[in-house]
Amino acid sequence: MIVVRLLKLLNEFLENNMTSNNNLNVEKNKAEVSKNIPELRFQGFIDAWELRKLKDFTIKTGKENSEGEDYPAYSVSNKLGLVSQTKQFDGSRLDFLDKTAYKFVNQGEFAYNPARINVGSIAFNDLGKTVIVSSLYVVLKISDKLDNEYILQFIKSIKFIEEVKRNTEGSVREYLFFDNFKNIKFPYIKNLEEQQKIGSFFKQLDNTITLHQRKLDKLKRLKQGYLQQLFPKNDEKVPRVRFTNFEYEWELRKLGDYSKYRRGSFPQPYGNKEWYDGEGAMPFVQVVDVTSKLTLVENTKQKISKLAQPKSVFVPEGKVIVTLQGSIGRVAITQYESFVDRTLLIFDDYEKATDQRFWAYTIQKKFEIEKLKAPGGTIKTITKEALSSFNVHLPQFEEQQKIGSFFNQLDNTIALQQSKLDKLKSIKQSLLQKMFI
């Protein structure tokens, strides 16, 4: 509802404060001028914009900290802007760093990572203090003819990314050094007030997006906390937190003893066109079709032909499956009938009545624990024997249902919040397209 109200207010704002270039009364050179007028702009502004190069408005700064002065060290994040390196490294002290090659970023200056500016790694120093950044960064200052926020928003637009691609150097990783950066063309508005209105508008929208991102992050942390508290630890037989009226101890079982499972299958070779599509084709689930939200994608990447179906494994709706290759440990409850590839495992049956959602969360949590143990946090392979030896905690069926339902509701809330955030980001990109030439 909040996003719906926000969208309504945003539409009202656009209607009351914006004008379309279709309604502008431009007397001369209409075709040429129209190209240099955005599709949407604030009312009261009619002058055409110009395409200018940044070199006319920027100077390279970033004096080296050659004396090794003790200024706070910062990094540039594409999401958070300037971030303290102490905070970035979980409060660790960075006294061991040689800061003599670091560069100063004064209040009112920009810093960017030349290897990551294409994903938005640029920041404006509005911290109210001078900081230092890695010598790898480019530091610059813009003319007072430009509004800082206006330029920052342009740099986050698709139009800027397109310009970056035309100006970057490097075969494997592309770099945008200052000599290339200054040749990028941008929409120059002579009227500083119009720049400021655009910059302020997008900054408010960014603040709203940030609030929704924080809410989403909080929900995800909440889920992780409940996963820790509503399931017993290691060899314990009761969780730290549980629903009322449940007092029995949980069973500790080996996964291979409690459940029956099998791998999917697909005829070889994979590239045979006869195995795909055609009349009677059905969804064919591969690793790529398993999301991180306990669901399959709405439409699988491939459809398995009627000819290939007898050589694969049919899975009805409502079964728990888990990926065994690629992104190992992704879990889903199938929401439609399908055939499943050999890179996935299907849980067919259990020793006792088992809530499918509870089982899915159990498997998901188990793989997360295994990832923490694995080098680099990545499970490279998983054998049937290793899977069979997994310990799983099992309460009574009614408690399973409670836990499964609880996490299902929490996941739905997370999905809804993610949808709101995606909608806001999509709106912003659309407006960036329409409000810049």
TrEMBL record:
Type I restriction modification DNA specificity domain mapped to chain residues: 48-221, 249-425
SUPFAM superfamilies hit by this protein: DNA methylase specificity domain
InterPro entries registered for this protein in UniProt: Restrct_endonuc_typeI_TRD, Restrct_endonuc_typeI_TRD_sf, Type-I_RS_S_subunit
Keyword terms: DNA-binding, Endonuclease, Hydrolase, Nuclease, Restriction system
GO terms assigned for molecular function: DNA binding; endonuclease activity
Gene Ontology terms: biological process: DNA restriction-modification system
UniProt superkingdom: Bacteria
Record Pfam families: Methylase_S
Keyword Zinc carried by entry: no
Record PANTHER family: TYPE I RESTRICTION ENZYME MJAVIII SPECIFICITY SUBUNIT, TYPE-1 RESTRICTION ENZYME ECOKI SPECIFICITY PROTEIN
UniProt record similarity statement: Belongs to the type-I restriction system S methylase family.
Protein name, as recorded: Restriction endonuclease subunit S
